[in-house]
Amino acid sequence: MSETSSAPTGRGPKSSAPPEAAAPLTPPSAPSGELPFWKRKSLEEMDRDEWESLCDGCGKCCLHKLQDEDEDGEPGEIHNTNVACRLLDLGSCQCSDYPNRWDFVPDCVQLFPQFIETAVWLPTTCAYRLLHEGKDLAWWHPLVSGSAETIHEAGISVRGRVISERKAGPLDHHIVDWPDL
Ligand code: SF4
Ligand code: SF4
């Protein structure tokens, strides 16, 4: 078993420090009577603000994964762990140094619309994955609820159920089988 890319993220480039957690929620608004942007536009059609606002702040894509060795040319199975990237704030579930994250976590992956189809490691609750699969956002998504807290209240975020890689020890002691990963 070998470690895969540990730190994919769909949060997109930010101009200032950690993303959504502490910041007031300001979803791109639709004119009265118009469907919200995620129901009107494809992922490719969204502008940067819309794309970034899709990230629900769950923190699941900041968890380490392990992958079995390839066999017969087939990619090895991916195993999820409850071990978070060293930069993840375990309370807010946000990156603690988003603008400079690549200085510390060079393999932190940035999501693009064209990349979603191949990003099989995205959790089943991830907004990018849901929309790519033709599904809608759930009630707890901040764009739907209007609150950045519902992701935590609904138990969808990683708050309270992960450990930092700074303390975790061997990753293979931390494999989890959560239905929402
Ligand atoms: S560097 Fe930040 S965004 Fe990237 S995986 Fe780590 S905590 Fe997540
Ligand atoms: S898994 Fe969660 S934090 Fe990561 S990109 Fe998807 S919605 Fe955002």
What does the secondary structure layout of this molecule look like, with pairings?
Elements: E1 2-3, E2 7-9, H1 37-40, H2 48-53, E3 63-67, E4 78-84, E5 88-89, E6 94-95, H3 101-104, E7 108-110, H4 127-132, H5 142-145, H6 150-153, E8 163-164, H7 165-168, E9 175-176
Parallel strand pairs: 2-7, 4-8
Antiparallel strand pairs: 1-3, 3-4, 4-9, 5-6
Bound molecules: iron/sulfur cluster (2 copies).
Describe the structure.
The N terminus is likely disordered. The chain has seven helices and nine strands; from the N terminus they run E-E-H-H-E-E-E-E-H-E-H-H-H-E-H-E. The protein has one domain. The protein is an alpha/beta fold and 181 residues long. Strands 1, 3, 4, 8 and 9 form a five-stranded mixed sheet that branches. Strands 2-7 form a two-stranded parallel sheet. The site of one iron/sulfur cluster (SF4) has 10 residues, from strand 2. The site of one iron/sulfur cluster has 10 residues, from strand 2.
- Ends distance: 19 Å
- The helix/strand order is EEHHEEEEHEHHHEHE
Shape, principal axes of CA atoms: globular
Structural class: alpha/beta
The share of residues in extended strands comes to 15-25%
Provide mean pLDDT, rounded: 85
Largest sheet: 5 strands, mixed
Q: How many structural domains can be distinguished in the coordinates?
A: 1
How helix-rich are the residues, as a percent range?
10-25%
The stretches of 5 or more residues where confidence is low (pLDDT under 50) are: 2-24
What is Rg? 16 Å
Number of strands: 9
Number of helices: 7
Bound molecules: iron/sulfur cluster
